[in-house]
Amino acid sequence: MVSREHKIAALHGKLQLLRSITNSHALNKTSIIVDASKYIAELKQKVERLNQDIANAQTSNDQNPLPIVTVENLEKGILINVLSKKSCQGLLVFILEAFEELGLNVLDARVSCTDTFSLQAVGGELDEENGESIDAQGVKQALLKAIRNWSRNADQQE
Question: Is residue 66 helix, strand or coil?
């Protein structure tokens, strides 16, 4: 009997974990799984869009490829992705300065600068007290400007 109760408790724990990962508000097993399926489909669409953006950027900028920037709104905050096929020495500094100029609170970030450049960051509200929300397009424009400035700076140093 204990093993059956243990299995039920383990299943319940896994369902709750799945519920939290997918931001589901469902209470029963079926609804949690349906929400997880929808979440997976959304992730697949995002991956396809990113792959298309990468392919488009590579074909249009084969000679001097600049990093690709995607910015999207989350329920509370904003998701920022910056990807480049090559290492971009010094780019992170320009991006962080852009975040600072925007007053963007970075809640979580992952950066890789080894062979390629990859940044994924989650930004929080700009001004929670005044209810000022983040403008995804404004953040993207500021990042593109920072990347152009970095590119000019890198070209001058060569």
Answer: coil
